[in-house]
Amino acid sequence: MNALGLRTKFRVAQWPELVKQSMAGQLMIWGYAWQVGQPDSDTIFGMAYGPNTESINDARFNLPAYNRLFEQQRVMADGPERLAVLREATRLMVAYMPYLLHMHRIYVDLAQPWVVGFRRHPFTSRRWSWIDIDTELRAARGA
Questions:
Q1: What burial class does residue 43 get, using C-beta atoms within 10 Å of its C-beta: 0-12 exposed, 13-18 middle, 19+ buried?
Q2: Which of 9, 92, 95, 112 is the most exposed place for a label (fewest CB within 10 A)?
């Protein structure tokens, strides 16, 4: 950073304190992972919606043209028209770049035959509440 003529100061803090600072707009750079819990795009697009500044809009991004598109798509049925609105919102997010999306996790699952109900959920990793163990099959297999 010195070679670029930039002065930097790094703050080290506990997670709850960092979240408070982020919500108050006190962090210049901040990063963590998001995970959607539904098949709709509302969470990810809501991260750039101006009125969400004190909830999920950590970047404090507030572009009226984007906000109108976000509000418009929320009341539309799924289909080509809504997809076109979301594509325009995406174009604005890419042009203004309030967030830098830089990774996508890859998961590998291993399960035994006695694990019942295991199926990768497409939108969440909180799948453990839907699985069970067939204790009779497990015992029969000698595990």
A1: middle
A2: 9
Tokens matching residue 128: 């453990």
Return the axis-axis angle of helices 80-96 and 64-74, rounded to nearest 10°: 150
Residues in the chain with pLDDT values less than 50? none
**Residue spans of alpha helices (H) in the chain:** 15-23, 42-46, 64-74, 80-96, 135-140
How does pLDDT run across 110-120, given as a tens digit for each residue?
A: 788 899 888 77
Long-range contacts of 111-118 (CB under 8 A, 24+ apart): 112/138, 112/143, 113/137, 113/141, 114/138, 114/141, 114/143
Phi and psi for 132 in degrees, rounded to 5?
A: -150, 170
Q: Position of tokens 């069970």?
A: 132
- Per residue in 62-77, pLDDT tens? 999 999 999 999 999 9
8-state DSSP, 116: E
Q: One-letter amino acid identity for 137?
A: L
The reply to whether the predicted model has a pTM over 0.90 is no
**Structural contact between residues 108 and 125, judged by C-beta atoms closer than 8 angstroms:** no
